[in-house]
Write the structure tokens for this entry.
Amino acid sequence: MEAAFRQARDTLGSFIQKIGTTHPDRTLLAVKVRFVLPDSSSQDIWVDQITYDDQASSFHGVMGDDIPTLKLSVDDKITIDRREIVDWMIVEDGKLIGGYTIRLAYERMTPVQKERFLETVHYSVED
């Protein structure tokens, strides 16, 4: 998993560049954010509807899940420091771009699990 995190961080500049341009069939922009909880454990959550603020070098997005201990709920708007990002993904033309942790999980699935996964996400995972 650490290799997937490293690959995502190493290519974050590519993500920033790509989201700065429009695409007619882009259906998702998201980053996976590591939240540190009060007990010092962490939780990684996908945040979507991502925008990037060049001047502040920060991202803005919408929570994809609840973290009650941090008083964060689904659909809350948040600001994200790039150091908190552990993965990123874009879906364009029905294909996953980035999504290194997703790709790793996908590689580890059985053929039946892969089929079910692809039915739920509505994008393809290609090399």
Residues 2-121 form one domain. The radius of gyration is 15 Å.
